[in-house]
Design brief:
Number of helices of chain B: 2
Helix content of chain A: under 10%
Strand content of chain A: 35-45%
Low-confidence stretches of chain B: none
Oligomer: heterodimer
Structural class of chain A: mainly beta
Strand content of chain B: 25-35%
Amino acid sequence: MSITEKIHKTTELTNFKGQIPTNYLYTYGIAGENFFRKIKDEGKFTASRCEECDVTYLPARIFCERCMGHLSKTIEVKPQGELYSFTVCWENMDGSRKTEPDVLAAVKIDGTDGVLVHYLGGVSLDEIEIGMQVEAVLKPKKDREGSIFDIKHFKPSAK
Amino acid sequence: MELENYPLGGKALSDKDLENSLFVKHKPSLKYAWDNGVAISRYLAELKEGRIIAKKCRKCGRTLVPPRMFCELCWVPTDEWVYVEDTGVVNTFSLCYINWDASLVPKGKDPHIPAVIELDGASKGMGIMHLLGEVELDKIKIGMKVKAVWKAEKEREGSITDILYWKPLE
């Protein structure tokens, strides 16, 4: 048994192009709303502390995921931290090559156990080191809209 | 700082709540290119010409539409290409009052009417999924005769949407 017809000319190969329409709208929830409003209005981060478990969550949240305790209080922390991990990305979303790479960083925020993932900027590739101190560069207040992109990127802290 | 009081277990957000809430809107780009293969390539090229093509399996004698290179019952390659009619009967249908994004079809507007059409010339039970149109909702019956309404020739692009919908055959 064999396939009786084959396409021999690649010009006869066809494919059907489409795009699946998807939209979403994500609300941040009670603690998330508080976290992003604080960035928008005051340029500060909020975290939630569980004394029971000795854990400080960032971004702020309303439940401790370890003991399920209710976290009704938030604390303010500075928008700075330590570079926990990073990666240098040379590809766009569609797989094409970037001329300038994006550096994606996981930043452990000072005074908390939370990590934010964001861009790292204002630094040359060979200067990046895990453990270095970094701080958030915020957009001007009038341009902030309550999104993670109210932070432009993190940059190395002044020594 | 104290978080404000809130109902445990959450609550549904109204449009008014949304005006006062922060949120992020996102539209992921879900592009795809689906390889048509030998049979569907020909099927779509024929649709562009205003014809519907099928494939016959000599072993079981069935005429398969949409065409395929393999008979899934006999497990052998299929044989001749044959044209089938652009008329047929409604095998099943549904009245659909929601759009793809789950929004409601506005009051007074006709619902979408997806249907499976068994094509004349193809084997019994062999049908394609499409839409009904130009039809009164309470007149739609399983088994009713329908005919394809095609796009204008120069607007056809080799897609199943080259047929706009199927309307009752008088």
